[in-house]
User: Fold these one by one.
Assistant:
Number 1:
Amino acid sequence: MVKRTYNLDIVLQALSDPTRRQVVERLGIGPSSVSDLASPFSMAMPSFMQHLDILESAQLIYTEKVGRVRICYLNPNPFSVIESWLQVQKSLWETRLNQLDSFLLKTKGKT
């Protein structure tokens, strides 16, 4: 089994656009054809395809051609790099806030 690594910057950059986030949310329900994914958006198909290319480059989605239809699938694995980064940040800030709380309690006791 090949273990893939995902780049946090690329994943976050791909998700920085509201259209791409909506595509990811839609694919969270299940696979969809490109034309069905594009239908809620008022943009030309080449512009929409650029969004899909960015999502695919970030490995957030993958596509499969079935006959004349291209089907898009969500790949949930890259979200683990976001989750790990957020977990580290949460722990760091909890530690800092606890230290600030301790400092303020000590300072309050001295006045």
Note: The CA atoms of residues 18 and 44 lie 16 Å apart.
Number 2:
Amino acid sequence: MLDHLDIALRCLIGVVFLAATFGKVRSRASWREFVASLAAMRVVPTRLVPAVAGVVGLAEAAVPVLLLVPPTRRLGHVLAALLLVAFSIGIAVTLSRRQRVACRCFGATGAPLGRRHLLRNGLLITAASVGVAAAGATGDVPPAGVAVAAVAGAVGGLLFVWFDDITDLFVAQPARPTAGRRGVPDGGHRGAGGPVTPR
């Protein structure tokens, strides 16, 4: 059973971080929007924002790779959990300042950061933490069991990727500002780190 859990959690976390990486690097505009959102959160000095964005992007890309290789799968879960904790701290600070900043976690939704993103990250941190414990499994699983566990994990990961859309179905959200020229919001919030625009 622990072997199946290990496979499922690696697929879940791997899908989430693959989507996060792809959402940020799929185009120059996506990357610029991510960097702008990081600047608008004002959790790192402005001059360090490009470097921090690069480190975040590389670390997110490293997670699925580490999870893929058995000797480093535990490290992959640890890195994922650390990144999620750092993201959660940044979101909490942003919310405490009552800033309206777009979530560029997966590069596309543009929903304003909110408490639901803390909930999502908390669930993912839990999954990664359980994954650390499950990573000690032997890996001796029949092919059918591998397939079932992998599909279950991947579907779970996709549910987290579509978390904003799913929660929008059940919770009324404030209207998202419309995007203007070059991603600058029409009448949106302009913080010290520059405007951040949902699409």
Note: The beta strands are 190-191, 194-195.
Number 3:
Amino acid sequence: MSHGLMQLLDPEAIVLGSDASTNEEIIRILAGRLEALGYVKSSYADAVVRREMTIPTGLPLERADNVAVPHTDPEHVLKPGIAMGTLKRPVIFANMEDPDEKLPVGFVFLLAINDKDKQIEALQSVMATIQNPEALDGLRSARTLDDVRAVLG
């Protein structure tokens, strides 16, 4: 099952089974990975957290563990990349379609995109994964990078 997403994910920016208890905490964990790997500026995490408060990114999937795709403006990005996190227990994100609705989120794909063409490619890869319940179930049970590679190709 290949969606090409693995090619956009830095293996060191994958966090499996995080204990994060808030959306801000998981955003900062993943943003910290991207910053340490040279993908984003130090301003990136704060910018993503601020944006999430006004333009939420929770996607309802009719699952107990929905998905969020936080991101921010290209000015905070040094080179394109994606960080991914799975959570031991879902954290609350606001629904992007109805910001008053709170969604339990178990998967976070943090986008660091500074090129419009790359953004479309990244979103298509993320959406292909999100729309595949088997892929999400595989990521839910993934314990190692090899498990993630087996799901995402």
Note: The first strand starts at residue 9 and ends at 18.
Number 4:
Amino acid sequence: MSLVLNRPTGPAPVPVPHLKAVKDLFEGLTGRDVEIASGADPVAVGGASGSLVGLYVDASMETRALVMFDVALAAYSGAALGLLPPGAAQDAVDAGALTETLVENCSEVLNVFASLFNVPNAPHLKLYSVIGPDDELRADVRELAVRAAPRDDIALEIARYGRGRLSVVVR
């Protein structure tokens, strides 16, 4: 007699990164103290939201995770990474628009963020694209962005720069 196990089919789940790992990543990249808390309002995407969206895929190029920064966190993290003065980031936040340099720097933060998904027994993810504030979101990306779970909506403050929000959604 053989034993038959019912194993789930389909791809392995992608974990939502732990808050401490997110905090450590931002502190390591910016060289600044970071305050972080779960339970923030979700980051709005598309239209005039000003959000920056990182789209992560697995080896089969299936979209498995999104990381969305509101305009404030995109500006503050991009400026802190590039050693730009906090006033440059504040100008972008006040205008509700990111400069090309801030988008490039924040895209690097999103690229490094992929490392938080790559843990044992989870599929390997990489940053596939960064969707800017003025870019149209594909329907499947928009659908994933507003999923209720698994996700975490995080408030994050970078010392001397400022506070913003990010949302992480996985499938």
Note: The first strand starts at residue 34 and ends at 38.
